[in-house]
Design a protein that fits this description.
The structure holds 2 protein chains of 2 kinds.
Chain A: E1 18-20, H1 28-35, E2 39-44, E3 49-51, E4 67-72, E5 75-84, E6 98-105, E7 111-116, E8 130-138, E9 145-152
Antiparallel strand pairs in A: 2-3, 2-4, 5-6, 5-8, 6-7, 8-9
Chain B: E1 12-19, E2 23-24, H1 32-47, E3 56-60, H2 67-74, E4 81-85, H3 93-106, E5 112-118, H4 120-123, E6 134-136, H5 150-165, H6 169-183, H7 198-203, E7 206-209, E8 211-212, E9 220-230, H8 231-235, E10 242-250, H9 273-281, E11 290-293, H10 298-307, H11 316-319, H12 322-325, H13 339-342, H14 349-360, E12 372-377, E13 384-390
Parallel strand pairs in B: 3-4, 3-5, 11-12
Antiparallel strand pairs in B: 1-9, 1-10, 2-9, 5-9, 7-8, 10-13, 12-13
Helix pairs in contact in B: 5-10, 6-10
The chains are: A mainly beta, B alpha+beta.
Chain lengths: 153, 394
Amino acid sequence: MTSTSTERKYYLPEGLPAPAPHIDDLGKEFWDGTREHELRVQFCESCQEFQWGPEWICYRCHSFDTLTYRTVEPRGTIFSWERVWYPTHPALQMGVPYLVALVELPHAGNIRMVGNLLGDPEQEVVIGSAVDAVFEDHDDSDPQYTLVHWRTV
Amino acid sequence: MADTKRTIRGKVAIAGIGETTYYKRGQAPDPEFKLVLEAVIRASEDAGIDPREIDGFASFSNDRNSPERIATALGIPEYRFSNMFWGGGGGGGSGAIANAVAAVAAGYSDVAVAYRGLAQGQFGRFGQGPRVNTVPGDGAFTVPYGVMSPAQTFAMRTRRFMHEHGARQEALRAISLASYRHAQFNPRAVMYGRELDAEAYDNSRWIVEPFHLFDCCMENDGAAALIVVSAERARDLKQKPAYVLAAAQGSAFRQGAAAHNAPDYATSNFKTLVPHLYDMAGVGPKDVDVLQSYENFTGGVLMSMVEHGFCAPDEVNEFFTLENFSAPDGKLPLNTSGGNLAECYMHGLELITEAVRQIRGTSTCQVPRVDISMVTSGPMVQPVSDLILANEPS
């Protein structure tokens, strides 16, 4: 029997790649935000609309300058999900099964985020369920980073 | 009436097909480039064309075997067209044909070859995640959460489609069973002699829900090539021409948005392409006699067939049956060589050689009367592509 997530320091075993912004720093604001346990996503001040994933330009008005980041409430609803059984990385050998949720943020223009769904990996998952974000700090990693997971309310 | 509509319809044909033996992943006895040369030569021989006549090259999915190296190796005196279809995965199978077709129709090439080679033992696998310390960019939003393989990327789209339309696991199963059934008639198939029934499918392990093992394509070694010439030239060659009625690529609004943010999510990404395709071909889904639909995963076939109009989204549980998909007399024989699931994962180019065989009447699961033979390439990637072949140019 493999170790369960509750016995581990993190939801998934250690050894997976750490997230980083694009090589041109696109998306840095988001990852910096997670370190402060905030969800910062792109928002166009001109269009008054959200946009995600990160890009250098607003796809609606084509402005480079009015595209900023806005901190949004770290909650949403499950839009889709998957339970992974086959480990595609050596670090995951002892980490399956695990759950991934695609979470929609209705209060932020229905943008979506991918994260792990905490709790029993064999739990029944219901699309539409309300979830809260859980920030998982990897302070002993170099570079340090924080992942955004989800937990049903 | 003057031909005022810009179209390739009926102007070009596939005149030759060539394949190496298909191997399990890592088991090809030859290097990838040698496999490609073998496929190109076999396709030329099949067409009855000296390979030195090839003057155009088209491939996809970042194929490693460059036109320059092929042309040099074969002593080709000149080539006038070389082209790589953007995007990974199998989205460029029909797209590579489309690019070769466009080159021939426009006069950039007289004899174009579309090809793909894969030797994963030599170059590593698709279905594994990256071995790096950090993952920058779009991957940062998925890989640290254990979403790094194609199966993990596409299971979530499939799950959403199944949720929205009440599609059952049995719909996915029917696709897999049809491929395996057809492969039992095809000695080229890697899964020839390896039957699959519903019980074995149900009992197979999950890779990532809702995909069982048998919902996922294989990984294989080998190479395939197709010779594309003008319709006039094709008529004078060895084989019955497979005329191209339509060949097209496309991608819809913001399908590439990172972290699974495509606004229309539960889609195989064919919705915008399909109207152009059928308009170009002058046929519709009811005219299609046999279909090869790219199966990276069965969920992609499910959505592809709906988006191409073969079935309404809320009728998939009734339409997706082994009986309907079985050659020779199912309602719509599907993946009649065994395809990516059971013949060979040649990134879907083997689906196109099979579509040509259906026009010629030489498939190991031949459908009795084939006027229209269709291929869909690369569901859920960006861009995707399609091909419609016919036994007459118009």
